[in-house]
């Protein structure tokens, strides 16, 4: 194999190792079955406003990169309530907790099952951003 080909292969493998595909799912699990209005963004993308009926799911797919801290943040609103905010993906917080991050949106905040060191999952609930 030529030196150039070897270098190209090596660089491709490094890039693959650094870029990792991630899916974030947001499901309307509101106790009162209200419609959930969401609007998610990252630094580079505006995913637009969406309305989720009870149990409907919105999916966000992206690649995280070793060098850049990926952050997706959303607003949430139902009924006549306030606009609430939450970071649905924070690479620093989440990169070793989930490749498929599945949020159930409850009135007190988002919950998900998180991977523990012993490979079991534990239900964790978060508070809305302040
Ligand atoms: C939503 O999902 C939950 C859990 O799967 C289920 O118990 C409930 O009946 C569903 N609600 C509606 C309105 O479909």
From TrEMBL:
GO terms classed as biological process: rejection of self pollen
Localization (cell): Secreted
The entry's keywords: Secreted, Self-incompatibility, Signal
Keyword Secreted: yes
Signal peptide limits: 1-19
Family named by the database record: Belongs to the plant self-incompatibility (S1) protein family.
UniProt protein name: S-protein homolog
Originating organism: Phaseolus coccineus (Scarlet runner bean)
Lineage: Eukaryota, Viridiplantae, Streptophyta, Embryophyta, Tracheophyta
